[in-house]
Design brief:
With 193 residues, the chain is an alpha+beta fold. Helix content is 34%, strand content 20%. It has a six-stranded antiparallel beta barrel with strand order 1-4-3-2-5-6. The longest helix has 15 residues, at 87-101. The radius of gyration is 20 Å and the shape is elongated. The N and C termini lie close together (10 Å).
Length: 193
Protein backbone atom coordinates (compact mmCIF):
# COMPACT_ATOMS: atom_id res chain seq x y z
CA UNK A 1 0.00 0.00 0.00
CA UNK A 2 1.96 3.04 -1.22
CA UNK A 3 -0.30 5.32 0.81
CA UNK A 4 0.99 3.64 3.96
CA UNK A 5 4.67 3.80 2.96
CA UNK A 6 5.07 0.36 1.38
CA UNK A 7 6.34 -0.26 -2.13
CA UNK A 8 5.88 -4.04 -2.17
CA UNK A 9 9.57 -4.88 -1.71
CA UNK A 10 8.75 -6.93 1.40
CA UNK A 11 7.24 -9.62 -0.82
CA UNK A 12 10.57 -10.07 -2.58
CA UNK A 13 12.32 -10.41 0.80
CA UNK A 14 10.18 -13.36 1.91
CA UNK A 15 9.88 -15.20 -1.41
CA UNK A 16 13.50 -16.59 -1.27
CA UNK A 17 12.71 -17.91 2.20
CA UNK A 18 10.21 -20.33 0.67
CA UNK A 19 6.99 -18.49 1.50
CA UNK A 20 4.13 -18.84 -0.92
CA UNK A 21 2.56 -15.48 -1.68
CA UNK A 22 -1.07 -14.92 -2.45
CA UNK A 23 -1.62 -11.80 -4.55
CA UNK A 24 -3.20 -9.19 -2.28
CA UNK A 25 -6.40 -7.40 -3.13
CA UNK A 26 -8.54 -4.90 -1.22
CA UNK A 27 -11.06 -6.14 1.32
CA UNK A 28 -13.44 -4.12 3.50
CA UNK A 29 -14.03 -1.75 0.62
CA UNK A 30 -16.82 -0.58 -1.64
CA UNK A 31 -18.09 -2.92 -4.34
CA UNK A 32 -18.21 -1.42 -7.82
CA UNK A 33 -21.31 -2.35 -9.80
CA UNK A 34 -22.70 -1.63 -13.25
CA UNK A 35 -25.88 0.44 -13.22
CA UNK A 36 -27.12 3.46 -15.14
CA UNK A 37 -28.74 4.80 -11.96
CA UNK A 38 -25.67 5.24 -9.72
CA UNK A 39 -25.13 8.96 -10.34
CA UNK A 40 -28.80 9.63 -9.59
CA UNK A 41 -28.71 7.47 -6.43
CA UNK A 42 -25.36 8.72 -5.07
CA UNK A 43 -25.75 9.37 -1.34
CA UNK A 44 -29.02 7.43 -0.88
CA UNK A 45 -28.97 5.17 2.18
CA UNK A 46 -31.33 2.30 2.80
CA UNK A 47 -31.71 -0.39 5.44
CA UNK A 48 -31.56 -3.63 3.52
CA UNK A 49 -29.94 -6.97 2.92
CA UNK A 50 -27.20 -7.49 0.34
CA UNK A 51 -26.38 -10.95 -1.04
CA UNK A 52 -23.78 -12.23 -3.49
CA UNK A 53 -24.74 -14.78 -6.14
CA UNK A 54 -22.87 -16.20 -9.12
CA UNK A 55 -23.73 -14.27 -12.28
CA UNK A 56 -26.94 -15.60 -13.81
CA UNK A 57 -28.23 -17.18 -10.58
CA UNK A 58 -30.35 -15.78 -7.80
CA UNK A 59 -32.30 -16.77 -4.72
CA UNK A 60 -35.72 -15.97 -6.20
CA UNK A 61 -35.26 -19.02 -8.43
CA UNK A 62 -34.45 -21.20 -5.43
CA UNK A 63 -30.72 -21.23 -6.08
CA UNK A 64 -28.22 -20.85 -3.28
CA UNK A 65 -25.91 -17.92 -2.81
CA UNK A 66 -22.15 -18.48 -2.89
CA UNK A 67 -21.79 -19.67 0.71
CA UNK A 68 -24.80 -18.95 2.88
CA UNK A 69 -22.66 -17.96 5.88
CA UNK A 70 -20.57 -15.46 3.89
CA UNK A 71 -22.85 -14.17 1.19
CA UNK A 72 -25.58 -12.11 2.88
CA UNK A 73 -25.33 -9.15 5.21
CA UNK A 74 -27.91 -6.74 6.58
CA UNK A 75 -27.70 -3.09 7.56
CA UNK A 76 -27.37 0.36 6.07
CA UNK A 77 -26.45 0.25 2.38
CA UNK A 78 -25.14 3.38 0.67
CA UNK A 79 -25.29 4.04 -3.07
CA UNK A 80 -22.14 5.71 -4.39
CA UNK A 81 -21.25 7.09 -7.80
CA UNK A 82 -19.38 3.89 -8.67
CA UNK A 83 -21.23 1.24 -6.68
CA UNK A 84 -22.35 0.27 -3.20
CA UNK A 85 -20.95 0.82 0.28
CA UNK A 86 -21.97 0.53 3.91
CA UNK A 87 -21.37 -2.16 6.54
CA UNK A 88 -23.15 -5.00 4.69
CA UNK A 89 -21.23 -4.26 1.50
CA UNK A 90 -17.92 -4.10 3.36
CA UNK A 91 -18.74 -7.53 4.84
CA UNK A 92 -19.21 -8.94 1.33
CA UNK A 93 -16.38 -7.10 -0.42
CA UNK A 94 -13.65 -9.66 0.26
CA UNK A 95 -15.68 -12.44 -1.35
CA UNK A 96 -16.68 -10.17 -4.26
CA UNK A 97 -13.03 -9.16 -4.72
CA UNK A 98 -11.87 -12.77 -4.80
CA UNK A 99 -14.43 -13.65 -7.43
CA UNK A 100 -13.60 -10.57 -9.52
CA UNK A 101 -9.89 -11.40 -9.34
CA UNK A 102 -10.63 -14.90 -10.68
CA UNK A 103 -12.83 -13.42 -13.43
CA UNK A 104 -16.00 -15.04 -12.06
CA UNK A 105 -19.23 -13.19 -12.72
CA UNK A 106 -21.04 -12.09 -9.58
CA UNK A 107 -24.23 -10.21 -8.80
CA UNK A 108 -25.14 -8.23 -5.70
CA UNK A 109 -28.82 -8.65 -4.88
CA UNK A 110 -30.41 -5.98 -2.72
CA UNK A 111 -33.51 -6.61 -0.65
CA UNK A 112 -34.84 -3.10 -0.06
CA UNK A 113 -37.67 -4.36 2.17
CA UNK A 114 -36.16 -7.12 4.31
CA UNK A 115 -38.67 -6.59 7.10
CA UNK A 116 -41.61 -7.32 4.76
CA UNK A 117 -42.30 -10.83 3.47
CA UNK A 118 -42.70 -11.09 -0.32
CA UNK A 119 -46.42 -11.97 -0.06
CA UNK A 120 -47.06 -9.06 2.31
CA UNK A 121 -45.15 -6.71 0.01
CA UNK A 122 -47.37 -7.66 -2.92
CA UNK A 123 -50.45 -6.98 -0.81
CA UNK A 124 -49.03 -3.64 0.33
CA UNK A 125 -48.35 -2.60 -3.28
CA UNK A 126 -51.88 -3.63 -4.30
CA UNK A 127 -53.22 -1.45 -1.48
CA UNK A 128 -51.06 1.56 -2.46
CA UNK A 129 -51.58 1.29 -6.23
CA UNK A 130 -54.80 -0.61 -6.91
CA UNK A 131 -57.78 1.46 -8.04
CA UNK A 132 -55.84 4.76 -7.93
CA UNK A 133 -56.49 6.33 -11.33
CA UNK A 134 -55.89 9.82 -9.92
CA UNK A 135 -52.38 9.03 -8.59
CA UNK A 136 -49.25 8.24 -10.58
CA UNK A 137 -47.19 5.13 -9.89
CA UNK A 138 -44.44 7.44 -8.64
CA UNK A 139 -46.70 9.23 -6.15
CA UNK A 140 -48.21 5.95 -4.94
CA UNK A 141 -44.75 4.94 -3.70
CA UNK A 142 -43.89 8.25 -1.99
CA UNK A 143 -43.63 7.66 1.74
CA UNK A 144 -42.87 4.00 1.18
CA UNK A 145 -39.56 4.37 -0.70
CA UNK A 146 -36.92 7.07 -0.73
CA UNK A 147 -38.03 9.49 -3.47
CA UNK A 148 -34.79 9.06 -5.42
CA UNK A 149 -35.27 5.28 -5.51
CA UNK A 150 -38.76 5.36 -7.01
CA UNK A 151 -37.97 6.13 -10.67
CA UNK A 152 -35.06 3.65 -10.90
CA UNK A 153 -37.10 0.89 -9.23
CA UNK A 154 -39.98 1.50 -11.64
CA UNK A 155 -37.63 1.46 -14.66
CA UNK A 156 -35.95 -1.78 -13.56
CA UNK A 157 -39.44 -3.24 -13.06
CA UNK A 158 -40.24 -2.43 -16.70
CA UNK A 159 -42.29 0.69 -16.02
CA UNK A 160 -40.40 3.46 -17.86
CA UNK A 161 -43.04 6.17 -17.27
CA UNK A 162 -43.31 6.97 -13.53
CA UNK A 163 -46.24 9.33 -14.22
CA UNK A 164 -48.38 6.41 -15.41
CA UNK A 165 -51.56 5.93 -13.34
CA UNK A 166 -50.93 3.59 -10.43
CA UNK A 167 -54.10 1.63 -11.17
CA UNK A 168 -52.92 0.91 -14.72
CA UNK A 169 -49.96 -1.08 -13.40
CA UNK A 170 -52.17 -4.07 -12.81
CA UNK A 171 -51.06 -7.28 -11.16
CA UNK A 172 -48.04 -7.83 -13.49
CA UNK A 173 -46.69 -4.33 -12.76
CA UNK A 174 -47.06 -4.69 -9.01
CA UNK A 175 -45.42 -8.14 -9.08
CA UNK A 176 -42.53 -6.70 -11.09
CA UNK A 177 -42.06 -3.86 -8.58
CA UNK A 178 -42.18 -6.34 -5.68
CA UNK A 179 -39.56 -8.51 -7.41
CA UNK A 180 -37.19 -5.54 -7.77
CA UNK A 181 -37.73 -4.46 -4.15
CA UNK A 182 -36.92 -7.97 -2.89
CA UNK A 183 -34.09 -8.77 -5.32
CA UNK A 184 -32.62 -5.77 -7.18
CA UNK A 185 -29.67 -7.08 -9.22
CA UNK A 186 -26.36 -5.30 -9.74
CA UNK A 187 -23.49 -6.81 -11.71
CA UNK A 188 -20.20 -6.63 -9.78
CA UNK A 189 -17.42 -5.01 -11.81
CA UNK A 190 -14.79 -5.07 -9.04
CA UNK A 191 -13.91 -3.51 -5.71
CA UNK A 192 -12.33 -0.19 -4.83
CA UNK A 193 -8.63 -0.19 -4.05
Amino acid sequence: SPKLGSNGSGYELVRPLGHRLIPPFPALTRIRVASPFLKHLKGVKIEGVASLVPHGRDRSRGERTLHESESAAAGEILFTETGLSGPPILDLSRRAGERAQRGEGTLVLLDLCPEIAASDLKALLRERCGGREDVSAELALVGFLNKRLIAPVLKVAGIPDPTRAAASLGEPGMLAIAAVLKSWRFEVTGTDS
